[in-house]
Amino acid sequence: MDLSERKRWNENHKKLTRIILDPAKHQRAVDLFLQQHRLLHSSRMSHSPIATLEDELVKDLQEETFRQYPVKASDTKNSIIWHMWHITRIEDMTMSVLVNNDVQVLHSGQWNKKLHIDDVHSGNEMTEAEIANLSATLDIGTGETKRLRD
Fold first, then answer.
1. Which end of the chain is more exposed for a tag (fewer CB within 10 A), N or C?
2. What is the pTM of this model?
C-alpha cells in the first residue's frame, strides 16, 4: 500500500465515520466498510489487487522478529505474534459468533491444532509465561500457516 493508497484509506475511513449512522446511506456504509476491512488483511486472503496494510507489516519480517517483544515496558510483555494472534482471535470471535451467528474459524478448521496452540480464548488474561509460550510455539512457518502467510 503506497502513500497515495494510504491517504485514500484514511479519507475513506473519515467518510465511513460520517455516513455509518445514516440509515439512508446504509448500503454505501456496508460497501465502504468491507472495502476498508479488506485492506487490513493479507492481499492473498482478501483478494485485494493491491498490497494491503498486513502485507506491508509482514514484508521482510523474519520469524524471530515476530516472536520478540517489540517494546521494553513494565506493563507489556506481548510479542508481535501474540498481538497478531490476539487481533485475529477477537475478529474471529466477534465476526463469526456475534455477526454471522456461526462457528469460529479457529474451531471449524481445527486451526488451534495446525497452529500448535492450546489456547482458544483471546489471550486477555494470559500470564507472562503463557504469552511467552504462545510466542515461542505458535506455528507460522509450516504447512497451511506458511501458505497463508506467503
1. C
2. 0.74
